[in-house]
Amino acid sequence: MEESFPFHYYLLEYLFVLVGLFFFLLDIALDIWTVVSFYQEGDYVYMAVMIFLLLGSSVLLQVFSWLWYSDCLDELETKVETFAKKHILIKPFHFLQLGVYLRYAGVIEISTKHFRQKNNSFAEGVAVYLNHDLQMLRLFEAFSESTPQLTLMMSIILQRGELELITGLKILTSAAAIASTVAMYHRSMRAFLQEKRKMSWISTGVYFMWNLLLIIPRVSALALFCSVLPCYIIAHFLSLWMLLVLGAWSQKTNLMEHSGWEWFYRATVGLIWYFSWFNISTGSIKLKTVLYYCVMGLDTLMLLGFWWWKVFEYTGCWRSLNPYIVIPILLGLYISGIILKMIYYRWFHPNCDEQKLAIPSEEPNDRQAAALNNDETDSLEASPKARAAVPAQPVTGILKRGRAMAANFYH
């Protein structure tokens, strides 16, 4: 039996889509402003690093977006995407780094339809999958652009000795923005629950807090290390990243349609793992999580240890930060984040297997088109004979991704 929700529930979900677009555009504006500021100050090295992060992240998102579109070009559900396909614009959009905007347009269109026709289960199903892909891209962006940017800015502030209260608040706000992106991905997975009230706003808030408490010490340790040994941060990243990619390969992921694309996904997972945990498989999750946090905890301690060593080597140059205060605080935040994560999974996380997930099923293409062009709010149901006449098809594309990530998230 489907749950019925009051009007404000649909309004809130719809507003989150619009707010997400606003902050996405705001982030781009702030990135441009930062690059211009570096240029005006003559910091051309920092400007080059910033541009590299922006372009690298953008290309990563466009490649994933195009690969996911290529899986379902014959099954596009929104008018804006269908128009782009009809005029052969999807590939040019991605080449011009505009693919994510096309996805936002599709999500806003189908979310508007679902908001206006609240009982249209087909529109809701399409919105679930389109929004899931978009939130995954935002998650990739958070750890391929926002988190490296935050690390870079913190290291610059530390090198210049400009750490003040207002600067600290800006850093905390940036870390909170990254954690909120992760929390919004968590919120998007709510659509796959049969009983959606099991994942309340309190659950999302706790999820946000433990991610924030774990992201802050990790990024801080990287920034402190980079501030004293900037030439070694690349070697550290590459060595640990390759190890994490091998770890992702050992999980035998099967999210993409081709093996080459799967390695691209595993490489991206390795990048995310460099900063934060992201579950990509079912199985012994507790063992994998413990192993991950032990490795990353030791790595964070090593980074802080190198920073401590350089601080004492150049004593007098780093009076604003006392290692005897900074290191215990960061380790305390890290341990608090792990404890809060244990509390979340013990009392707030809905535990259910794949059979209990409310995963919408694929429908025949002619029925999809009819449902999208139908302005009525009644759901269209195929007869038992019609359902039996449709041959079973292998699960691919957007349906495959949604099922796989929902099973991983709720396992």
What is the compact description of this entry?
It is built from 15 helices and no strands. The protein is an all-alpha fold.
Task: Describe the fold and architecture.
This protein starts with 6 loop residues before the first helix and ends with a helix. Helix 6 (121-160) crosses helix 15 (397-410). The chain is globular and about 65 Å long. It is mostly helical and 411 residues long. The chain is built from 15 helices and no strands. The relative contact order is 0.11.
Cα distance, first to last residue? 23 Å
Give the low-pLDDT segments. 362-395
Report the helical percentage. over 70%
- Let me know the average pLDDT: 82
Q: Give a short account of the largest sheet.
A: none
- Write the H/E string, N to C: HHHHHHHHHHHHHHH
How many β-strand runs?
0
> What structural class is derived from the secondary structure elements?
mainly alpha
Backbone shape: globular
Count of DSSP H/I helices = 15
Strand content: under 5%
Descriptors:
411 residues; mainly alpha; 74% helix
Question: What order do the helices and strands come in, and which of them pair?
Answer:
Elements: H1 7-41, H2 44-70, H3 79-86, H4 90-95, H5 99-116, H6 121-160, H7 165-188, H8 201-228, H9 233-250, H10 259-273, H11 285-313, H12 323-348, H13 365-373, H14 384-389, H15 397-410
